[in-house]
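Student: I would love a firmer grasp of how sequence relates to backbone shape in proteins. I am handing you a single protein, as its sequence and its fold in token form. I am told such tokens are a discrete way to write the fold. I hope you can help me see how the letters and the tokens relate. Take your time, and here it is.
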Amino acid sequence: FELGMNVGKMDRSDSQSTYATRIYAFGSTRNIPLTYRKKLVFDVKDINGRDLSDTARSLVTDFFPSDIVTEEKHVIDPIITGTLNSNHREFSNNNDLVDTLVGSIYKIIDKGNGISFGTGTYYMPMPGQPSFPRDYLPAGEYVFRVSFIYLQDGIEKEILIGSNTVTLNENQQHEINLSFPIAKEFAPGLGASLFKLRTYLLVPQFDNTLIGMGIGLFARVSLDMELVAGKSAATSVTFLSGVNSGKTFDAIYNPDFHIGETANILRLPEGVTASIGDKYTIDNIVKSKVPVSYFSDDKDTQIAEGIATRHLLMPEGVTYIDAYPDMKAEEAVEQIVVFDDIYPKREGVTDMVTTHTYTDTIDNPDGTKTSKDWLAWRFKDDDPGFHFSKDYKLDSEELRIEFLSGPLAGMDFEVLFNPYDKVRDDAPKPEHLKDGTWNRDAQVYEIKRNDNYGRMLPDDILHPTDQGGDTYVLYGYDPQFVSDVMIPNAEVEVEERAKEYIEKLKQDPSTYTNTMMSDYIYGINPETGEQDEGFAKSFTVGQKVKLINKAYFEEARISRIKGFEYSLDIPYDSPVYTVGETAPYSRLGEIESKIDSLTYRKEKDRLSIIAGGGTSSGIEGTNAVFPRNIEVTVDRVGYFKAGDIILGGTTVVDAFIKLISQKSTGELRSEISTNKDVEYGSPKGFITYTAVRNSQGPMEQAYYDGNPNNKLNFSEEVGGVQTATRQLDGFYTQKETYIANVIYAASEDDVLPRKVLSDSINVNVNRKWFAGVCSSIPKT
């Protein structure tokens, strides 16, 4: 189609309102800590072989994600017993405790009362037999001795814990029980092994072979303690200067499990060392845990006009995305784009959904008090390996949840982690158990109800699925605590989205209307000058054509016919063909710019109608519905006015037809608590009705099953919405149909007449049956 040759007139319809060749892309501010993209640079101030440290910026294990932290801890709880008699008066034992000690200094946590060491005469009275008196210990000296022993460089070393000598007279006592206190610290040094408990007991000489029921004396030693070294963490360092500049190496923080100041060590791999003054970064450190004084200002951070510094950025080194490579500075048309749906996040799934009853006390005008109970909904994450902590929460920000599926899909709430009821003197559960492992009972989230969606939610109708399985996203926390890849992955997502965005900007979305020359379509033979069917032209939708017009394109544009228009009486009289990559449409820019309060979210599709921009994104599929009630907040949008409600369940198509075609009439929707296909004998539930007045007059009457005497008691009107609940009694034995009617008066201006609304729900009842072979004829 060439202008002047076979096209008499070619017009372009521009549907693109923005044009840019350089994109500065940003993500959301969600889950972005204050320390994001701030420089945390360490200096080598002490070096010992391949061990380095920055003594001015001491490290602790709390700076690292918990999943990479290793702790050396040994639980020691032996019980040692033995027997002594007149021929065997010594009890000597070396009991194995730990084979290999990695650390050099250990804390000793005494969970008992030191080392218990005792002796006594055996005594075992027999039930139903004559009771004999218990023998006394022989008179004389009893020598006790307890120590720890271990090997260091092949040499056995001994640490005395304590010794004691007890002297007894004849017939003085039956047992001796001693307790030897343990030191709070054990420092064997590096390379220790074969850690053992050595115990020794010497009893006095005695000749009575019948003592202790002929068995003799017993010896018993018990100990309950933990040997805890420091914590170590696997990390990596990237050098910014020195001989290793630009290189990244795996490293171990506190590799020898030291405690205290000596733990501030990073060990490099074999053969790698550094020099005093070398600068380096630690790659997986949790910056939110690091003191602010450790950071330095980042003067190179890209800050585009109007964008807060805490927005998620593209990966480091990627400042912007150009439409074309090697673009000249004068060709750059800059645009800032913010993708608010991209932020570091983890999709969780609800599990173990429960409720907790709270009681509010209301002061009445007459001085009395009224108590009112309400339910709060709680849940856990279904992944037992995912652990959250109150320490993860960002300062001055709420911890919030956005549901992606389930009854609350698209809704956003504040949540309380590890909740407790102050009125009932409840207390938060400890996040860790005594053994240091995570306490699953503390991993609970409570949804803080609000009335942002027209009524207090969650409630007994709209709440997380009882059986769990709803997907959700948390925000308001530092993602570095959860995983050190969440932020980098989100940055890459911003970059990829920006590339997709600029690719769309590069495409020409315009449509071209081509008014064809009549003689070209009619088919004039240039040799004869007469009409010839062999020269006649006709084109159909989908045909590929080449557009030639120097005013629009330097070369030409290959595109397809999207539509055509011609006269029915004279088809060849200047037909018009519409050519373009996208279907032509009527730009409702004035209406689009006003619809700033409608948001539709679906699990995979997104609809966002943006105020002021004059553009709207597409909706995948034609059955998209609003998942919840939407209140119109602008003064007037087409036939919608402020205060009108678009009911959840309304298709987007229906909403826009109403927007441009008629005033908003009253609406009635229902939701039954059970399935609409039930098994015979199933208990009946309840039906929730939602009535929206919109532009109608007030509600005159509401009833069910066609009988005006069966009144439906609707709540007071809030924002034009009223709700009612019908409780169904009994059990299902046959198909049931439930009908409800609501009558609204005419509108005040009489434009809308009196309206009778009807809603119907059918419940089908099915019976299970079984087949098999009976062993006998059933008697009933």
Summary: The chain is about 5% helix and 35% strand. The helical segments are 486-506, 518-522, 589-592, 652-661. The mean pLDDT is 83. Residues 771 and 778 are 14 Å apart (CA to CA).
